[in-house]
Design brief:
single chain; mainly alpha; MetI-like fold; 14 helices; disordered C terminus
Length: about 325
């Protein structure tokens, strides 16, 4: 750089970034925090899981062999898988429906409604579980007695009973996180070029056709992202069952995390709890990777299926040149 060249903040910033140690200096804070708060606890947990709870000495795979035959742990895992299949499906569909409605021209006061729907997520999970736990208590909520008063049931509805408590927890979690996922979808919808939507409306497409053929296909990756987060959150379910267990009786192994917490802090068996945590982490990672693999395989097969459907439609209607909504090339819709 010559002496006469003008030094601006941009050129000064570029010169600093071109220094040999600049990239390392930028990533060092992240690496340090990652090692301290993730790698180190993970390594310590794996090491602790091989210790004996009685002597504190290394005992090999004893904790894992015990866990392999621990029916309470595996029953809790099956319960959260069942929980996730129903709750995540309902939550994602509800969040998508709300996002599509707020993004449609039929909605007035979009920002107000978006804020209202997001507010449950702003409430801490423990507080939300306590609130709904009291609302689900028959002695405190007179509305639960209405089916009995109208002769529809013989007894008062008890959402915290042994048969309905899992679905009550599903309701609490869905109430908490639907607005969060809706906000993510709504943000992604706002990035869709207005020209694509305008062209579809000019072609006579209804809002439902636009949502089905344009908006939802463009949100596939965002939906995949929220589904992975939901899978991880489901396998780590703890706050809501822990709070509800203070109001009604739940088994200590109702969820894997609840059993891990009880084993570590009520029974004092830290090595066994560490082994449970390691196994749960492995299952979570494998479940997320399996879901990603399934989604990627379906993405690769989608063009072939679309070509087959187009060929079949052309064979059935030789004189038909096009159908549905025409999406501009390069829009990202497949």
């Amino acid at each position: 750089m010559s002496r006469s060249a003008k030094v601006t903040p941009v050129t000064l910033r570029r010169s600093r970034l071109n220094r040999p140690g600049a990239p390392l200096a930028m990533v060092t804070p992240f690496v340090v925090l990652f090692v301290i708060f993730f790698v180190a606890p993970l390594v310590y947990s794996v090491y602790t899981s091989f210790k004996s709870p009685l002597t504190g000495q290394l005992s090999g795979w004893a904790n894992y062999r015990f866990l392999l035959h621990d029916t309470e742990y595996w029953q809790g895992l099956q319960r959260v898988v069942y929980f996730g299949v129903i709750q995540v499906t309902v939550m994602i569909v509800a969040a998508m429906a709300l996002a599509l409605f707020l993004d449609s021209p039929y909605c007035r006061g979009k920002r107000i409604f978006a804020t209202i729907y997001f507010l449950p997520y702003a409430i801490p999970g423990v507080i939300a579980a306590i609130m709904w736990g009291f609302l689900f208590t028959p002695q405190l909520d007179s509305l639960l007695g209405l089916p009995r008063d109208f002769g529809l049931m013989n007894t008062t509805v008890n959402p915290l009973g042994s048969k309905l408590v899992l679905y009550a927890i599903m309701f609490i979690v869905t109430w908490e996180f639907t607005g969060y996922n809706m906000t993510i979808y709504l943000t992604s919808l706002s990035s869709i070029p207005a020209e694509i939507l305008s062209a579809a409306r000019i072609d006579g497409a209804s809002e439902w056709q636009i949502a089905r053929r344009i908006k939802i296909p463009l949100l596939r990756r965002t939906i995949t992202f929220t589904l992975v987060l939901s899978i991880i959150g489901t396998l780590q379910l703890f706050n809501e069952p822990s709070v509800v267990s203070q109001i009604t009786s739940l088994p200590i192994g109702y969820t894997p995390n609840l059993l891990i917490y009880t084993t570590a802090f009520s029974y004092g068996n830290i090595p066994l709890a560490a082994a449970m945590s390691v196994v749960l982490a492995i299952i979570t990672i494998l479940g997320s990777l399996a879901f990603f693999r399934i989604v990627r395989s379906r993405e690769k097969e989608r063009p072939a299926r679309k070509a087959r459907r187009s060929a079949l439609a052309a064979a059935q209607s030789p004189g038909r040149t096009g159908a549905g909504v025409d999406v501009p090339e390069g829009s990202g819709v497949r």
